[in-house]
Amino acid sequence: MSAASSVVAMKKVVQQLRFEANINRVKVSQAAAELQQFCIQNALQDPLLTGVSSSTNPFRTQKLCSFV
Amino acid sequence: MAAQEVQPSETIAKLKSESEALKTKLEEERAKLHDVELHQVAEKVEPLGQFVMKTRRTLKGHGNKVLCMDWCKDKRRIVSSSQDGKVIVWDAFTTNKEHAVTMPCTWVMACAYAPSGCAVACGGLDNKCSVYPLSLDKNENLAAKKKSVAMHTNYLSACSFTNSDMQILTSSGDGTCALWDVESGQLLQSFHGHAADVLCLDLAPSETGNTFVSGGCDKKANVWDMRSGQCIQSFETHESDINSVRYYPSGDAFASGSDDATCRLYDLRADREVAIYSKESIIFGASSVDFSISGRLLFGGYNDYTINVWDVLKGTRVSILFGHENRVSTLRVSPDGTAFCSGSWDHTLRVWA
Questions:
Q1: What is the 3-state secondary structure (H, E, C) of chain B?
Q2: Chain B window 2-21: which residues touch A at a Cβ cutoff of 8 Å?
Q3: How many domains would you assign to chain A?
Q4: pLDDT in tens, B203-219
C-alpha cells in the first residue's frame, strides 16, 4: 500500500472512531431495566418459556402411532 | 511561495496516535456508564423453573452436513441447505419434503425464506446468492427459474430478505456485506469495515428501523445503517470468530455466539457488552444463537453437539439439550415462538418444543 493510500485509510479509521466516540449512551442500569421489562411484559406470550400444552402447540401434538 | 511539506509518515504517525487516543476515550465513555451488571438488576426476577424440551420432529434427507436453515412466516415450513449442494423445503409438521433444489456448488452455507413464502434464497462457495421462486407444481424444475442476485468475491456466509421479497442482504468471506435489489440484481449499498470474513448477519426487528448487525472473523460485531452504509456501532470483546448474531426481540440489544465458547449480549443504547453466557465446562464454539420471543431465553447451538439454553437476564444456564450426533451448525426459533429448529453436521434437522 502506498504512503498516500495509507493516510487515506488511517483518516477513515480516525473519522469512524470520532463518530463512535460521540454517540449518546445510557447507563447500563437503565438499559438493563428496559431489557428486563420487555422480558416480563412478554413472558406470558412466550410458548417456549411457559411450556404451552400439547393441545395448543402444533409441534407437541401426538403424531399418529406407527406399529414397529 | 514556500510550501510546507509534511511527510506521509509523519501524518500517519499523528493519525495513529489520534486513533489510539480516540479508542481510549471510547472505552472511558463506555466505562462511565457501567454502573451495574445485568444479572444484578435481574436478581429480583423470578427464577425459571425446569424446562422440558424435546425433539418433536427429525427431518432426514440431506446427504451431508446441514449448514443453514430458516423458517417460513407460516410457522411450519423450513428451508435448509447442506454441504451436499442441496436446498430442501420441508413441512415441519408432517416432516414431508416439499421442494428440493440441487445447487451447482457444494457447501451451501446460507439460505433464507422470502417473507411471502413464495421463494427461497441460497448460496455458498459459488460466491453468489440466488433466488428460487417456489412452484406449486411439484414436477416443475425449480433450477430453471433461478435468479442470480448477489455477487461477492468470496464465499457467501449468510443472507436474509429485508421486510419484502424485493431486497436481500448478504455477508461474505470477502469481508463485506451488501444490499441487493432482487429483480435487477443491482447492488444498492455495500458495507465495508470488517477486517476479515463476515460470517453472519441479522436484521433489526422492523419496528426499530433500518439497521442490521454483522459478526466476523475479526472478532467484531458491527451495527450498520442500511441506507447510508455507515457502521454506527462496533463491539470487540469476543476472543475469536463470531459465528452468529441475533437481535433481542425489542431491537435494543443483540446476542452473539463465538468460537471462544461464549455467547454475549450487547446493549445498543448502553453501547457495551452487558452479559456473558459461559461455563468452564463449555469449551467448544457456539455456532448459532436465537432468542425465545420474550427474549428471556437464549438458545445456543454448539460444536460439542449440544444446545445450551440460557436465562438471558440472570446469565445462568437453564437447560442442556442432547440429541444431535455432530456439531450443531444452525438454530432458529419459529416465527410464533412455539418451537425452534436446529440443523447439524449429523445431516439432520430437529424441531424442539
A1: CCCCCCCHHHHHHHHHHHHHHHHHHHHHHHHHCCCCCHHHHHHHCCCCCCCCCCEEEEECCCCCCEEEEEECCCCCEEEEEECCCEEEEEECCCCEEEEEEECCCCCCCEEEECCCCCEEEEECCCCEEEEEECCCCCCCCHHHHCEEEEECCCCEEEEEECCCCCEEEEEECCCEEEEEECCCCCEEEEEECCCCCEEEEEECCHHHCCEEEEEECCCCEEEEECCCCCEEEEECCCCCCEEEEEECCCCCEEEEEECCCCEEEEECCCCEEEEEECCCCCCCCEEEEEECCCCCEEEEEECCCCEEEEECCCCCEEEEECCCCCCEEEEEECCCCCCEEEEECCCCEEEEC
A2: 8-9, 11-12, 15-16, 18-19
A3: 1
A4: 999 776 799 999 999 99
